[in-house]
Amino acid sequence: MRRYVSTLAFVFAAFLLASVTGCQTWMGAASPPPLKVSGTQILDDRNHPVRLRGVNAASMEFTSDGEGHILQTVGVAIQDWHVNIIRLPLSQDRWFGWGREQSDGGRAYRALVDQIVKECAARNCYIILDLHWSDCNEWGRNIGQHSMPDTNSLVFWKSCAAVYANQPAVLFDLYNEPHDVSWDVWLNGGEIKDTPNRPDLVAVNYSCVGMQAVLDAIRATGAKNVVICGGLDWAYDFSGILAGRQLADPVGRGVIYASHCYDNKHQSVYTWIANMELASARLPVIVTEFGGNSGPSKMVPADNWLLHVLQAIQDHQWSYTAWDLHPHAGPRLLADWNYTPSPRFGVFVKAALDGTLPAYAPPPLTNSPAP
Fold it and tell me: How far apart are CA 333 and CA 192, in angstroms?
C-alpha cells in the first residue's frame, strides 16, 4: 500500500509538472520547422511539402533506461543514417514509474525521453513519441502491447502532451497497432477482450478508449502538434478510415494516418501498394513501420519483397520510419551494438536513406497472384 500511495503521489506531481512545463512556447529553441497537415500533404511553416524519412528506435517501451544505448542510437541514426525523423516507442507505465525496475515515479525515464527529444530537435530531426505499451487499465500489470489504449493511456497523454505541447520537432503517435476490435470500437472505445501479442500477457476484458478520445485528451492540453494514427489489423488496414471514420481535429495541426507493412499478411506487395494508393489519394499517410529480409516474397517467389516495398515508397515519395534500429527487436536493421547494418535489411534501408539504393524492377503484375 505504501508503494501504491507514493507512486500515486509521483503520478500526480508529474502531471502537475507537465501541466506547467507544457505552457512553454518553445520560441527560440533549436528545432526543425513546425509541421502541419493540409489535404493529403505534410507541410512546414512555409507551406513547403516535407517528406519524413527515418527509423524506429525501440527499447524505451520495454526498459526504463534505453538499455544504455538509446542516446547513441539516436545519434547514429541522425549522423550516419541521415534520418530526419525518429519514432520512439514509449510505455505509459514507465512514464509514471510503474516498471518493476523503477523506484522514482518515472523521473529518470521522463528525463531521458526529454534528453532524446532535445537531441533530435537540436539536430534538426523530428521525433514521434509513440504510445507503444499500455496496461489494460491496471498500472504496473500487463505492461505490454495490447489491442487498444485504455483509460490510463489518457492519463499518459495528458501528461506527455502537456510537456511537449507545440514543440515543433514532436509528433504524437496515438497508439501502436490497434487490432481485433470493430471499427466503431476503434473510433469510440468500448468493452473488449484483449488480444495481447506475447504469451506471458494475460488476455483480459477491459474498457478501452477510442482514437478520438485519445486525440481529444491531447488537444485538451493545448497541444496542437501533428498526430499519427494507425488503423486496424495492427495498423495495416485503412478501410474503416476511408469509409468515414476519420478523426475530428478542428483545433490541431492535423492527423497523419499510418501503415505498418510486413511480409506476414499473406498478400502481395502489389496489394499493399494498391491499398496505400487508395489511402494516399484521400489522406496524409506515413509508413511508421515496415521490415523484413531482402529475398523472395512469400506470395511471389520471383519478387524481392523488401526491395519492392522500398521502391514503392520511393516511387510514391511516401514518408516512413523503418523498424527497427536495434540488433534484437526484429526485424533488425542492426547486426550488433557496433551499429553494423544487418546484411539482409539494414544495408538496404541505409542505402535508401543515403539515396544510393539502386532501382528495383519488380516482376510484372500479370505474373503475380491476384491481390
Answer: 34
All cell numbers assigned to 215? 486525440
Distance CA 165, CA 183 (A): 29
Please answer whether residues 227 and 256 qualify as being in contact, where contact means their C-beta atoms are separated by less than 8 angstroms. Answer: yes
Residue partners of 254: CB distance under 8 A and separation at least 6: 36, 37, 38, 226, 227, 284
Q: What is the dihedral of CA 18, 23, 28, 32, to 10 degrees?
A: 60
The cell for 76 is 547514429
Return d(Cα 142, Cα 138) in angstroms, integer: 7
Asked: is 2-357 a CATH 3.20.20.80 domain? The reply is yes
For 90-127, the pLDDT digits (tens) are 999 999 999 999 999 999 999 999 999 999 999 999 99
- pLDDT of 229-283, one tens digit each? 999 999 999 999 999 999 999 999 999 999 999 988 888 999 999 999 999 999 9
**This prediction's pTM:** 0.92
Domain boundary assignment for the chain:
2-357
